[in-house]
Please model this.
Amino acid sequence: MTDLPILHVKNLGKADYQPVWQAMKDFTDGRDAHTPDELWLVEHPPVFTQGQAGKAEHLLAPGAIPVVATDRGGQVTYHGPGQLVAYPLLDLRRLKIGVRELVTKIEQSVVALLAEYKIDSAPKADAPGVYVNGDKIASLGLRVRKGCSFHGVAINVDVDLAPFNQINPCGYAGLNMTRLVDLVDTAKQPVVFSDVAERYTRILSNILGLTAQLKE
Model:
């Protein structure tokens, strides 16, 4: 048995961006000091999301992929099938951590996940996210309201990287993106999306000092 607080984990499967975003806002607005924290895992259909600081010039050629102006921090990024999107809905006051510390913990969780696949990665001080040899594998953008976080991190597992060429990812022209499946010998260590999600849930909950518990 453990006395650690519970982190309710919800696997949303494949779900459109905007309804999930609205649900995050509703959850955050409706929670109180006793509401357990949650972690939502999801794959979104193809969509570009533009953060609050987003500049139109970073949308180079969105084409048929929809663009959603959202309320998270950061610039423009791409979500699509094969990308694990994790939304930690946390009461930061209760956890006694600040926004910068949360960003660090999320970055650490991705680094630890990749280490399980024998991949060396690191964050950058001036550009939130996680990088492998200078190429970005995970993008991060948060919003905090009433002392509680929503939005989160997108980890490229086996997502099609081509749409990233239609934008300046996270506002950086020429930034190369990479994905997990291209960085491992899949003959020796298969990359299974559900396994990546389970590993990430375990790692993030440990780093946050919470006990993951699946919630239907």
Remarks:
- The longest helix spans residues 99-116.
- The chain has a mean pLDDT of 96.
